[in-house]
C-alpha cells in the first residue's frame, strides 16, 4: 500500500522449521473444518481455531466460525461479567492475530463485531489505535477502525478534527490523516453559511504543506478535494441538441416509401441531407443522468407526441449525457411545424425549451433525389489525401494561433456563453483567484513541480473563465515532459479542452471543413493530424455526418455514439488497440462507412476491454451466429459483439496485424451482412 512492501515480522525460518509450520497449519485447518462442519464449539475446538488464526489470520471462514461459537457461548451465559470475559478473550485473540498481519481484513472486521456488543472499553481501543498509528501512520485499517470507534463513542467531528490536525502537523506526508480530515469536514460544511470561513482555513493549512514539501502528493490530493468543494458549480443544463435550438429543417416524404429525406443547414452554413424512417431528436447535457424526462410539443399540435419516450444513447439504465427520442413523421400533414422540447427531469435544468421549425412536404418518386450516401462504389477516404500538404499545415498553424471568443456565437444559441450557468458567489471567485496567485508564486520557486502545474491547471479550469483556456492548454502540453508516467492522462485532458475550445467558434471550426462536392452531398469535418487522444467533447458536433479523426493518438472512440447522424468515420492511423475499443460505434445506426486501417488492432495480447463483454460461453446467440462454416467463434466472438447489428457498407482494416488473418476477415463478413467493400475489394459471399 502506498508503495510500501509488506515486511514480515521476525526473521525467516529455515526450511525445516517452515515444513513443521506448514504441517501444523494443515492439521489445524483440517481440525477447524471438521469442527465447523459438526458445529462443535468446545473449549478445545476454540483453542485450535485460535492457534490457526494466530498463524494465518487470512482464513476468513475461521473468523466466521468464531462468530458462531461466540454467539453460542454468549447466549448460554446469563451473567454479564462472564459474557464480558468471552468478548475480552476475542479482543485478545485479534491483537495476537494482528501481530502476524496488521492489515488483515478478517481480524479488523472481527474486532468491530466484538465491540458492537457494547460491553468493551472504547478507551482501551483508542489507546491501541494511538500506538498503532504512531508505528504506521498510514495504516488505513487503523484509520477506518478509529472512525468506527468515534461513532460508537459519539465523539463530535470537531474533536476529531483536532486529532487529524495533530497527525498532519507531525507529518505533512500523512495521506490517511488528510483523507480522514476530508471525511470529517464534508458533513460539517454541507449547507453551512460559514462554509467559506472553514475552507479558507483549510487552504491555509494545505498551502503551508505544499510550500514545505512541494513534491509530496498527500497535500495535493487534499487540495483536489478542497477544489471540488470550492469550484463554481453549474446546474444541469443542455449543452447541445439536434436539431439545434432555433434551427429549421425540412422533411420530404416519398410516395410509397417508409423513408423520408431530412434536409438541414449546419452551423457552418452547408446543406446536409439524410434518409430515415423516423426523426430522432438528441439532447446532450453537461453531466450524466440515469433518467431524463422531456415534453415535446408542436404548433400546429400533433397527436401522440405525449407518448414519445426518451432513452439514453446506450439503450441501458447506465447514466448518460446523450438522450434520444424518435418522432414518427409518416403521420405529419403537409405544413410547417414549430417544435418545443422542454426538460422536466432533472428539475433543475435551466435552458429549455429548445425550439426548431420543421417543414413537411410530400413528393412523388421522381421528385426525390437519390441519397448519395449509398454510393459505396465511388467512396474515398479523406486520409488518402495527404495531411502534410501546405494548406493542411498552414491551417493547423493558424489553429494554434487563434483564440476563441465565446461571445461570437449567435444570440439565443445554447452554446452562446459557457459560463452563463455558473452559480457564482464572490467568496468562491476570491478563493480561486488567491489560489492561482499562490500556485504561480510556488511555480517561480519550483518551476518543474508536476503537482503545482497540474493543480494550477485544475484551479484555472474550475474558475470557469474562458480567458484561462489557453493557459490551461499550455500547462497540459508541458506536463507530459515533466511527468511522462502520466502522459496519457495529460494528453487526454489537453484534447478534451482543445476540442471544446475549437467547437465554440463556427469561424474557427470552418477551417476544419473539407468540401468534396464531386463525391458526396456534404463534406468532411477534418480533425486529422492534431495529436488528439480523446474526442468526447461532441456536444456542438451532433450535426456532423462525416468525421475525419485520422492521424491522431486515439485509443478509444467512446463519446462518438452521441453523433447519431454520423454516416462516415475515418479513424485510421491512430492507436486503437483492439476491436472492443470500437464498441460504442454499435450505437450509431446511421454509420455506413468506417476506416480503422493502420491502427494497433491485434498487436496487444491482453484486451482489458474484452472483459466488459459477455464471454462466448455465456453468449449463446453470438456463438451460434458465428459457429456456422469454418469460422472460429471462440477466437473472434468479439467481432459479433461489436459489429453485429451495424449497417456498414464499407470497412477498411488494412495495416492492422489482424488484417491478414483470413478467419478474422471471414468473421467480419459474417457479422456484417450489408458489407460491400472490405479494404477496397468487393465482398464475396
UniProtKB/TrEMBL annotation:
UniProt source species: Marchantia polymorpha subsp. ruderalis
Ranges of Low complexity composition bias in the record: 376-391
Reaction(s) catalysed by this chain's protein: geranylgeranyl diphosphate + L-cysteinyl-[protein] = S-geranylgeranyl-L-cysteinyl-[protein] + diphosphate
Keywords: Prenyltransferase, Repeat, Transferase
Gene3D superfamilies xrefs: Protein prenylyltransferase, Ribonuclease Inhibitor
Region (Disordered): 1-20, 367-393
EC number: 2.5.1.60
GO CC terms of this entry: Rab-protein geranylgeranyltransferase complex
Similarity remark: Belongs to the protein prenyltransferase subunit alpha family.
InterPro entries: Leu-rich_rpt, LRR_dom_sf, Prenyl_trans_a
Record has Cytoplasm as a keyword: no
Name under which the protein is recorded: Geranylgeranyl transferase type-2 subunit alpha
GO biological process, one term: prenylation
Amino acid at each position: 500500500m502506498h508503495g510500501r512492501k509488506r515486511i514480515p515480522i521476525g526473521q525467516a525460518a529455515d526450511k525445516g522449521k517452515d515444513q513443521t509450520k506448514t504441517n501444523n497449519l494443515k492439521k489445524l485447518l483440517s481440525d477447524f473444518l471438521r469442527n465447523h462442519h459438526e458445529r462443535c464449539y468446545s473449549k478445545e475446538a476454540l483453542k485450535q481455531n485460535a492457534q490457526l488464526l494466530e498463524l494465518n489470520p487470512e482464513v476468513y471462514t475461521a473468523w466466521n466460525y468464531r462468530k458462531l461459537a461466540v454467539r453460542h457461548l454468549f447466549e448460554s451465559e446469563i451473567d454479564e461479567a462472564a459474557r464480558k470475559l468471552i468478548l475480552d478473550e476475542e479482543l485478545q485473540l485479534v491483537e495476537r492475530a494482528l501481530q502476524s498481519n496488521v492489515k488483515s481484513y478478517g481480524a479488523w472486521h472481527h474486532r468491530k463485531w466484538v465491540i458492537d456488543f457494547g460491553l468493551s472499553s472504547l478507551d482501551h481501543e483508542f489507546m491501541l489505535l494511538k500506538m498503532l498509528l504512531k508505528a504506521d501512520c498510514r495504516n488505513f485499517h487503523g484509520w477506518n477502525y478509529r472512525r468506527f470507534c468515534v461513532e460508537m463513542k459519539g465523539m463530535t467531528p470537531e474533536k476529531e478534527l483536532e486529532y487529524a490536525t495533530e497527525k498532519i502537523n507531525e507529518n505533512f506526508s500523512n495521506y490517511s490523516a488528510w483523507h480522514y480530515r476530508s471525511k470529517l469536514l464534508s458533513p460539517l460544511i454541507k449547507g453551512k453559511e460559514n462554509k467559506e470561513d472553514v475552507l479558507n482555513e483549510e487552504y491555509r493549512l494545505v498551502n503551508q504543506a505544499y510550500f514545505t514539501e512541494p513534491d509530496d502528493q498527500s497535500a495535493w490530493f487534499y487540495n483536489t478535494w478542497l477544489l471540488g468543494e470550492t469550484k463554481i458549480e453549474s446546474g444541469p443544463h443542455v449543452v447541445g441538441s439536434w436539431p439545434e435550438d432555433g434551427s429549421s429543417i425540412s422533411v420530404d416524404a416519398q410516395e410509397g416509401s417508409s423513408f423520408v429525406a431530412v434536409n438541414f443547414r449546419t452551423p457552418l452554413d452547408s446543406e446536409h441531407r439524410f434518409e430515415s424512417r423516423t426523426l430522432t431528436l438528441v439532447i446532450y447535457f453537461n453531466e450524466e443522468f440515469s433518467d431524463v424526462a422531456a415534453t415535446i410539443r408542436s404548433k400546429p399540435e400533433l397527436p401522440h407526441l405525449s407518448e414519445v419516450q426518451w432513452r439514453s444513447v446506450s439503450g441501458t439504465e447506465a447514466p448518460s449525457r446523450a438522450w434520444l427520442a424518435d418522432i414518427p413523421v409518416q403521420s405529419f400533414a403537409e405544413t410547417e411545424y414549430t417544435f418545443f422540447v422542454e426538460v422536466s427531469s432533472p428539475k433543475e435544468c435551466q435552458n429549455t425549451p429548445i425550439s426548431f421549425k420543421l417543414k413537411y412536404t410530400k413528393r412523388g418518386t421522381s421528385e426525390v433525389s437519390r441519397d448519395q450516401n449509398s454510393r459505396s462504389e465511388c467512396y474515398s477516404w479523406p486520409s488518402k489525401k495527404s495531411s502534410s500538404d501546405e494548406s493542411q499545415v498552414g491551417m493547423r498553424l493558424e489553429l494554434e494561433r487563434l483564440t476563441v471568443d465565446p461571445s461570437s456565437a449567435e444570440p439565443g444559441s445554447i452554446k452562446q456563453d459557457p459560463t452563463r450557468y455558473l452559480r457564482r458567489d464572490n467568496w468562491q471567485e476570491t478563493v480561486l483567484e488567491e489560489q492561482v496567485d499562490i500556485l504561480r508564486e510556488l511555480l517561480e520557486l519550483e518551476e518543474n513541480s508536476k503537482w503545482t502545474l497540474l493543480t494550477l491547471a485544475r484551479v484555472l479550469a474550475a474558475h470557469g473563465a474562458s480567458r484561462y483556456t489557453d493557459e490551461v492548454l499550455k500547462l497540459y502540453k508541458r506536463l507530459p515532459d515533466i511527468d511522462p508516467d502520466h502522459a496519457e492522462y495529460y494528453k487526454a485532458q489537453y484534447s478534451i479542452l482543445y476540442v471544446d475550445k475549437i467547437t465554440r467558434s463556427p469561424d474557427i471550426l470552418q477551417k476544419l471543413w473539407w468540401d468534396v462536392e464531386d463525391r458526396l452531398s456534404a463534406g468532411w469535418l477534418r480533425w486529422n493530424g492534431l495529436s488528439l487522444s480523446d474526442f468526447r467533447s461532441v456536444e456542438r458536433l451532433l450535426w456532423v455526418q462525416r468525421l475525419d479523426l485520422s492521424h491522431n493518438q486515439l485509443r478509444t472512440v467512446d463519446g462518438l455514439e452521441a453523433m447519431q447522424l454520423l454516416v462516415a468515420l475515418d479513424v485510421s492511423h491512430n492507436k486503437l488497440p483492439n476491436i472492443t475499443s470500437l464498441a460504442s460505434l454499435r450505437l450509431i445506426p446511421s454509420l455506413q462507412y468506417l476506416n480503422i486501417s493502420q491502427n494497433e488492432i491485434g498487436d496487444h495480447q491482453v484486451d482489458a476491454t474484452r472483459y466488459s463483454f459477455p464471454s462466448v460461453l455465456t453468449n449463446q446467440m453470438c456463438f451460434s451466429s458465428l459457429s456456422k462454416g469454418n469460422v472460429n467463434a471462440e477466437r473472434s466472438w468479439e467481432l459479433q459483439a461489436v459489429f453485429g447489428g451495424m449497417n456498414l457498407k464499407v470497412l477498411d482494416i488494412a495495416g492492422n496485424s489482424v488484417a491478414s488473418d483470413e478467419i478474422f476477415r471471414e468473421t467480419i463478413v459474417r457479422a456484417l451482412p450489408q458489407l460491400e467493400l472490405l479494404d477496397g475489394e468487393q465482398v464475396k459471399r
